[in-house]
Write a structure and sequence with these properties.
Layout: H1 2-16, E1 24-27, E2 30-35, E3 40-60, E4 63-82, E5 86-92, E6 97-109
Parallel strand pairs: 2-6
Antiparallel strand pairs: 1-3, 3-4, 3-5, 5-6
């Protein structure tokens, strides 16, 4: 009976605790192609949050993609085609990096060296 008292005492603390949000998230963080070298298509979602309001820009492989003015949070959703890993970064108005992350490119089958048909009838 004593062990159940401790469990009941901890329940209210966990029930009312706010879930901690990560300040920078990429979803999904991996794209899988069927064969090595093929394009991979994903719907990417980037969410970010800072402590102070400011002007921020999202860069995809060092290319400015979207900017936000006087805000603390941002959301960017888009379709992405990739054949290699793609780097994401959030920078402030002074071009200092605030957050960074990467979506990894993966494949199931290795690229075949010879694309010739490998079967014979006779």
């Amino acid at each position: 009976m004593n062990k159940y008292k401790y469990i009941l005492m901890l329940l209210p603390l966990t029930a009312f605790a706010e879930p901690s949000e990560l300040p920078f998230t990429l979803q999904p963080d991996q794209c899988v192609a069927l064969e090595q070298g093929q394009s991979c298509f994903i719907d990417i979602k980037v969410k970010w949050q800072t402590k102070t309001k400011g002007d921020y820009c999202l860069f995809v492989d060092e290319v400015k993609t979207q900017c936000w003015q006087a805000t603390k949070i941002g959301l960017w959703e888009n379709e992405l085609e990739m054949k290699t890993d793609v780097a994401f970064s959030l920078k402030d108005s002074k071009h200092q990096m605030i957050y960074s992350g990467k979506v990894q490119y993966a494949w199931i089958y290795k690229k075949r060296k010879n694309k010739a048909v490998r079967w014979r009838m006779f």
